[in-house]
Design brief:
Length: 228
């Protein structure tokens, strides 16, 4: 695949984006942000936002939700800390510099894991999704707003052509839906419950995965043993 990403490239890219991110992407990604927050609030409780960035989403959550935000970019996170102070967001438990592929939280720590415009910007998307599933409580949800690559046609050709140029920006353009399907099938603990196109132009989708409840996981293990 063209234009694979690495940790240093991503960190440098988002350090450059930090001063202007809200101005450039705030309005463009607004509807996706709102959709993700609404989905997360249906579950509520303790919510982890991975790739919290400048914290642009944080004031939009209910004050009854307890929020934890992590991001790889320290300059982006400083903006988030300023926003928490500005809005007096006492429901934000913590903000921390952290790698999405190595989350420093115990298993089953959160009711919801939210990641907006993150999965296709990390070096190993499947490892990142594995971490989301690990820290999510049984019965919780993973809520993504994420790029879904075109399967064919002009957009598919453009994404393939643009991939090498997207890398220095911290983006991955070529990311088919099949990767989400294969990950969910391999993981088994999660199941897709929603996929809905989001603006701009349907290049992104709201994607929700539910983690099986503890009773369902036990039943799955019994079925697996019986099938051996």
């Amino acid at each position: 695949m063209h234009a694979e990403l690495d940790r240093d490239t991503i960190a440098k890219a988002y350090a450059r984006w930090a001063p202007v991110y809200d101005l450039v992407f705030g309005a463009v990604f607004e509807r996706g942000r709102h959709a993700a927050i609404i989905a997360a609030e249906r579950i509520g409780g303790r919510i982890l936002e991975v790739g919290v960035g400048t914290g642009i989403s944080l004031p939009e959550y209910s004050r009854t939700s307890r929020l934890v935000g992590v991001d790889l970019s320290e300059p982006m996170l400083r903006k988030a800390q300023e926003r928490v102070a500005e809005f007096g967001l006492s429901n934000v438990e913590s903000l921390a510099v952290m790698d999405a592929e190595r989350l420093a939280f115990p298993d089953d720590s959160f009711d919801v894991v939210v990641a907006q415009y993150v999965v296709t910007t990390v070096p190993n998307p499947e490892a990142t999704l594995d971490e989301f599933a690990r820290v999510l409580k049984p019965g919780g949800e993973i809520v993504l707003v994420s790029r879904v690559g075109a399967e064919a046609g002009l957009r598919r050709a453009f994404e393939h052509w643009f991939a090498p140029m997207a890398r220095p920006l911290g983006w991955r353009t070529d990311f088919p839906w099949a990767r989400y399907e294969h990950w969910a099938a391999r993981t088994r603990a999660v199941s897709l419950i929603e996929r809905r196109p989001m603006p701009p132009l349907g290049h992104f989708s709201l994607i929700r995965f539910a983690k099986a409840s503890a009773s369902s996981e036990s039943a799955n293990r019994l079925e697996a043993r019986a099938g051996r």
